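To: structure subgroup
Subject: Chain for Friday's discussion

All,

I'm putting the inputs and outputs inline so they're searchable in the archive.
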Amino acid sequence: MRNSSTLLIAAALALGLALPAHALRGPNDVRDMVRTGEIMPFEVIQRRVLQDNEGEYVGAQFDQGTRVYRFRFLRDGNLINVDVDARTGQPVRRRQSY
């Protein structure tokens, strides 16, 4: 059992080392992306999304690989996901979970 656990850990580490560089970025890299103009500031995008969507704002996540913010809202007991391109500030997808 111990050997299989060791193999799983080794495989996970190997996969982690194979991840693209953008997957290993941290919060400072996001600030750098804003500073260099690669993506728009979060506050600007958030303001637009909050104005355009109804419901209780739950929060947001940023996917550095795709450069997409996912905003979450609760409306009538349903979770609404609004994906926004961080480069342009334009919505790219809206999905409702039941």
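Points worth raising on Friday:
The domain at 25-97 is CATH 3.10.450.40 (Nuclear Transport Factor 2; Chain: A,).
The chain is about 35% helix and 30% strand.

D.
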